[in-house]
Amino acid sequence: MQKLIILNTREIKKIKVITQNDFGYSLKNDYAYLRNDKNRIFLVNKDIGRLDIDKLKIDRIGLYFAEVKHNHVRLSKEGAQLLAKEAEKNKVTLKNVVEFSEKEMKDYFQGIDLEKDLGDDNKFILLKYNQEIFGCAKYKEKKILNFLPKIHRGEVII
Questions:
Q1: Using CA atoms, how far apart are residues 94 and 104, in angstroms rounded to an integer?
Q2: CA distances in angstroms from 16 to 11, 22, 29, 52, listed in the order given
Q3: Contact 116/142 with Cβ under 8 angstroms?
Q4: % residues pLDDT > 90 (the chain)
Q5: Which band of pLDDT confidence, cut at 50, 70 and 90, is reported for residue 56?
Q6: Whether the domain at 1-95 and the domain at 96-158 fall into the same CATH topology
Q7: Whole-number Å distance between alpha carbons of 4 and 61
Q8: Class of domain 96-158
Q9: What is the pLDDT at residue 158?
Q10: Nearest alpha-carbon partner for 22 in 144, 132, 124, 143
């Protein structure tokens, strides 16, 4: 069982500022943000405040949105897709989006780090294939580091 903490407005604002700076957009919909002991952020309906979650035995709750470490937010696969869909709905163009070719997509889903020159800055990027955002990765030293969980990896994806 994990211990979940409901984030206050100041902590939520910090996450939104980081996503705004990194990707050019932050979620506008009204969610409650929960953090577990591994600094993973989960999104749930605001009505969660009516429950005393300390008295509940909860294994999982909400949508796994991101992991927060050292003033960086690494979006989950679902978190990246949610951010992209909401940005598209609000007619906002995201930044730090990298379009993959079919070969790069296949390599990524096999767990391979990809060599790609996106400049000298270390940053988090959103991954795109065929007009769909499918994840978030770290770009460092001319490589896209693969954070895809093993459960999502495979040979036949396209």
A1: 21
A2: 9, 10, 11, 25
A3: yes
A4: 59
A5: low
A6: yes
A7: 9
A8: alpha beta
A9: 59
A10: 124
Cα dihedral 22/118/126/108 (nearest 10): -150
The encoded tokens of residue 156 equal: 């036949």
Higher pLDDT, 30 or 81: 81
CATH 3.30.450.80 fits 1-95, yes or no: no
Q: Is the dihedral of CA 9, 11, 12, 14 positive or negative?
A: positive
What does pTM read for this prediction?
A: 0.87
Domain range annotation of the chain: 1-95, 96-158
Structure tokens at 75: 């979006």
Residues 6+ apart with CB under 8 A from 69: 39
Residue 71's identity, in one-letter code, is: N
Strands (E) across 76-149 are located at: 97-99, 114-115, 123-129, 132-140, 143-145
Q: Write the burial class of residue 96 (CB in 10 Å: 0-12 exposed, 13-18 middle, 19+ buried).
A: middle
